[in-house]
Amino acid sequence: MAVSASGTLKIEEVHPRPDQAKHMPYAPAIQVQGPADILFISGSTPSPLYHQHPHVPEEHVHPCDIEEQTRRAMDNIKLVLDCKGLDWRHVVKVTKYLTDMRDFDGLHRVMNGYMGDWKPASTTICVNALSSPGARVEIDMIAVAPRA
């Protein structure tokens, strides 16, 4: 699938075996061709995008549900994308950090609702803990935008 964000930028999934792509929840690679700006989006947890440092516990009260935690993290990322006039199809790489790998399917159910049929390159890592007590997910992304 090729996405042309402008006449000079092409973002394309790379599938060495295209007939097998339907079995994958992500693309093995994403190729970006043309002049572009790269946006590195910091890791987002279910905490508010803007919060105090050092952390104030009242700002980091999270639901237990992985799907609601994922929605909150994705909504934070959407704020960043919207601010730059980008959408999910500009995202070329996602890294997901989970504190429990059994949350993998719930995480992807929610992410698919945001991403639709777009499947950027992706990595999932299981970690011992995240920066906010009770956070079970953190997501960071890299997006590519055509130069204005």
Structural commentary:
With 148 residues, the protein is of the alpha+beta class. The chain has one domain: 60s Ribosomal Protein L30, Chain: A (2-Layer Sandwich), CATH 3.30.1330. Helices cover 20% and strands 33% of the residues. The chain has helices at residues 66-83, 104-115, and strands at residues 2-6, 9-14, 29-33, 36-44, 91-98, 121-126, 137-146. The strands form two sheets. It has a four-stranded mixed beta sheet with strand order 4-7-5-6. The chain has a three-stranded antiparallel beta sheet with strand order 1-2-3, with no helix packed on it. Helix 1 (66-83) packs parallel to helix 2 (104-115). 28% of the residues are buried.
Judged by helices, strands and strand pairing, the structural class is alpha+beta
Cα end-to-end separation: 23 Å
Shape: globular
Q: What fold name stands as the CATH topology?
A: 60s Ribosomal Protein L30, Chain: A
Q: Uncertain regions: pLDDT < 50 for 5+ in a row?
A: none
Helix tally equals 2
Strand content: 25-35%
Instruction: Quickly name the level 1 CATH class.
Output: Alpha Beta
Report the radius of gyration as a whole number of Å.
Answer: 16 Å
Short note summarizing the structure:
By secondary structure, the protein is of the alpha+beta class.
Keywords summarizing the entry:
148 residues; alpha+beta; 60s Ribosomal Protein L30, Chain: A; four-stranded mixed sheet; three-stranded antiparallel sheet; 2 helices; globular
Element layout with pairings:
Blueprint: E1 2-6, E2 9-14, E3 29-33, E4 36-44, H1 66-83, E5 91-98, H2 104-115, E6 121-126, E7 137-146
Parallel strand pairs: 5-6
Antiparallel strand pairs: 1-2, 2-3, 4-7, 5-7
